[in-house]
Design brief:
Blueprint (H helix, E strand, L loop, with lengths): L1 E2 L26 E2 L50 E2 L12 E2 L6 E5 L6 E3 L9 E14 L4 E13 L4
Antiparallel strand pairs: 1-2, 3-4, 5-6, 5-7, 7-8
Length: 161
């Protein structure tokens, strides 16, 4: 069995023998599994499915699932909130099409009406603009009444495991 320093049922280090332990059972502070990659952080263990925005507690990094890599929670820019200009002024963002919208990373597109999908996700723990909603609103602007894209934008922190 292995010492389990953080109580997550995964141990680390060299195997130890304990007399008087029932077969197939490990006493408190020990585990039958010795694959913990960070035995000082309760959140880091093989098979972890949650994402975290802060460094893990043993030497940093974001490999909370012990697979040897930092796996990003969100990997794409938003899709489905598109616009086209009906009077040759593309900076205003109309007519808006919201079909197939999915949230994602974004960058400002040159005016307060437009956001552009960012295909390069930020690093683990980094913050960036995130388009979380898209709907339309009608307004008179430039050359008549049009349906404009109304982007809901928040600051999102990239989670990893």
């Amino acid at each position: 069995m292995f010492t389990d320093g953080d109580g997550d049922n995964f141990g680390a280090g060299a195997s130890v023998n304990r007399c008087g332990t029932a077969a197939g059972a490990a006493p408190t502070g020990f585990s039958l599994v010795g694959t913990d990659c960070c035995d000082t952080d309760l959140n880091a263990f093989p098979g972890q499915t949650a994402y975290f925005t802060g460094l893990r507690g043993c030497g940093g990094g974001y490999d909370y699932n012990c697979n040897g890599a930092d796996n990003l929670q969100f990997t794409a820019g938003f899709t489905g909130c598109t616009h086209a200009s009906s009077c040759g002024v593309p900076a205003y963002g109309y007519e808006c099409v919201t079909t197939g919208f999915t949230p994602g990373w974004a960058n400002p597109g040159g005016s307060s009406f437009i956001w552009v999908a960012d295909a390069t996700p930020p690093a683990c723990g980094a913050m960036q603009s995130w388009v979380n909603t898209c709907n339309t609103w009608s307004g008179v602007f430039a050359c008549g009444v049009h349906n404009y894209c109304n982007f809901g934008v928040i600051t999102q922190t990239q989670g990893c495991r």
